[in-house]
Amino acid sequence: MLLQVRNLRCGYGSLEIVKGISLHVCAGEIVTLVGANGAGKTSLLRAITGLLPPWSGEIVVQGRHTRGLPPWKGVSNSMVLVPEGRQLFADMTVWENLLIGGYHNPDRLMAMEEILTQFPRLRERSQQLAGTLSGGEQQMVALGRALAAKPRFILLDEPSMGLAPLMVQEVFSVIRKLKDLGVTIFLVEQNAIAALGIADRAYVMETGEIILEGDARDLLHNPEVRRAYLGKGYKEIWE
Ligand SMILES: Nc1ncnc2c1ncn2[C@@H]1O[C@H](COP(=O)(O)OP(=O)(O)O)[C@@H](O)[C@H]1O
Ligand SMILES: [Mg+2]
After folding, report:
1. Which ligand number lies closest to the CA of residue 33?
2. Which residue among 8, 21, 43, 161 is best mutated to probe the pocket of ligand 1, counting the most ligand atoms within 8 A of its Cβ?
3. Which of 48, 59, 171, 235 has the maximum number of C-beta atoms within 10 A of its C-beta?
């Protein structure tokens, strides 16, 4: 098991946001956590990576208890977070962004070459400033920057945010490809249709709690999930 979270609680000041969450991710899986805006998804990822000190509970990353450790101690190079909003170095080129992602990887040049082969669009634009790319291209750079560290495990925070539907499809097909390359993925998303469409297993989060979990396909067809998260467009897209 790459990640195990047990009864995790955290928040800001005295306000509890993550209210006792338990979940796990096994090697080779795409696991998604879907939930509406404000559910506490980003706070959960911050707690898992040590950016937000948890109040209680357990976090086990590849067999090691990391709760209470700062990110530079708790997160090994084999686990990388792709943060919400991409957070690229906008005034640096695509190539330089990848280089920074591979800072701790002695084989970074080889990893970068592989990334540029996997993402031909990034090779074309390797000398372009990251801030001048389209939203979808920026998300690819954010993924590429994470891959430059050669991680076994990637945590993705809302990669679909701000992207047009076609771009969401493109980015998600890249995420699916990462699984085939042997990378394990924990995908946090508001876009439940897209996320449940590529995931193996899923958790549904509502105001800081997991209210449903199971096989992603089953959840995609679960009437409760459809009503709450998928909206009216669901039928036309999937049936
Ligand atoms: N730095 C912060 N200080 C205080 N409250 C915060 C902070 N960051 C997020 N919150 C609150 O925590 C709740 C959950 O936010 P967040 O984890 O970003 O949810 P999500 O990623 O699911 O949209 C929201 O009500 C938000 O206002
Ligand atoms: Mg968020």
Report:
1. 1
2. 43
3. 48
